[in-house]
Amino acid sequence: MTPTNPSVLAREFRETGRSRSCPVIDMHGHFGPYEGIWFPNVTAEAMIGTMDRAGVRMIVCSSHESLIDSAAGNERMARVVRSHPDRFRAYWCINPNDPELIARQLPGLDARPEFLGLKFLSDYHQYPVTGDAYRPALEYAEAHRMPILMHTWGGSPNDGPRLVAEVADRHPDLVILMGHAGYGEWDYSSDMVRDHANVYLELTAAYAVNGAIERMVERAGARKILFGTDLPWFDPHYGIGCILYARISDEDRQDILHRNAERILAGVR
């Protein structure tokens, strides 16, 4: 069957596996084993192999271990970045259930080149992103120009899109990346991002929903959308393919796959 997609980028990826003019930056990854599931690419070297095959230049990760033991997990992630500085960057995972640990960890974090931002997983920690325990991290990230990748999910009492909007209103200079794009609340999330200069949609898990990418581009604009995969949970080939074959322009694809991430990374500290 002859492919009918007119995209020049799609043809290049299809023929060569990557694009010289369109590198891919993955803004939502994880690292290390996770209890109860087997990953075929759990090591840094295996992840790099997957990234190379899909044309992913760099990935920004948080450690699975840091969900439970944030101190040990964050330091393990730092060692990965130091070993592969051209392929990995890290988010420092914040556990709001241990405010004293947050107070000890934050000072000096802005001077550590391994970490470009923070990671909130409020649904996992069962604590609302608007709660007081997050305030020191939010203020620190805003003051030091460190973006925060927040796990977000439609209807969640901990990190639903409306709660994210409250945080964005309180911290207008804080860059917020909405992991999973407020899954399910596509229109509200897209409109909210359109109306908040400091908030972006990140696409992990949205690829599986037919028409979601086009809807977000239409309502929020391609310059407010970031590529991410949750690697090693999901393979980047699938996410890249969904963007390449979405009914959007190649300029939109360039913004989503790397340009927006480059703009954000250029503004970090």
Could you describe the 3D structure shown?
The chain has one domain (21-266): TIM Barrel (Alpha-Beta Barrel). It is 41% helix and 18% strand. The chain has helices spanning 8-16, 44-54, 70-83, 99-105, 122-125, 135-143, 161-170, 186-195, 212-220, 236-244, 250-266, and strands at 24-31, 56-63, 88-94, 115-120, 148-153, 176-183, 199-202, 225-226. Strands 1-2-3-4-5-6-7-8 form an eight-stranded parallel sheet, with helices on both faces. Helix 8 links the parallel strand 6 (176-183) and strand 7. Helix 8 packs parallel to helix 9. The longest helix is centred in the C-terminal third of the chain and has 17 residues, at 250-266. The N and C termini lie far apart (49 Å).
Q: Topology, please?
A:
Layout: H1 8-16, E1 24-31, H2 44-54, E2 56-63, H3 70-83, E3 88-94, H4 99-105, E4 115-120, H5 122-125, H6 135-143, E5 148-153, H7 161-170, E6 176-183, H8 186-195, E7 199-202, H9 212-220, E8 225-226, H10 236-244, H11 250-266
Parallel strand pairs: 1-2, 2-3, 3-4, 4-5, 5-6, 6-7, 7-8
Helix pairs in contact: 8-9
Query: Which superfamily, in CATH terms, is the homologous superfamily?
Result: Metal-dependent hydrolases
Quote the CATH topology.
TIM Barrel
Low-pLDDT residue spans: none
Put simply, the count of helices is: 11
Q: List the domain count as a whole number.
A: 1
The main sheet comes to: 8 strands, parallel
Helical content stands at 40-55%
Give me the secondary-structure category: alpha/beta
**CATH architectural type:** Alpha-Beta Barrel
Main-sheet strand order equals 1-2-3-4-5-6-7-8
H/E series: HEHEHEHEHHEHEHEHEHH
CATH class designation = Alpha Beta
Mean pLDDT: 94
C-alpha Rg, in Å? 18 Å
* Tertiary shape: globular
End-to-end separation in angstroms reads 49 Å
Count the E strands: 8
Strand content: 15-25%
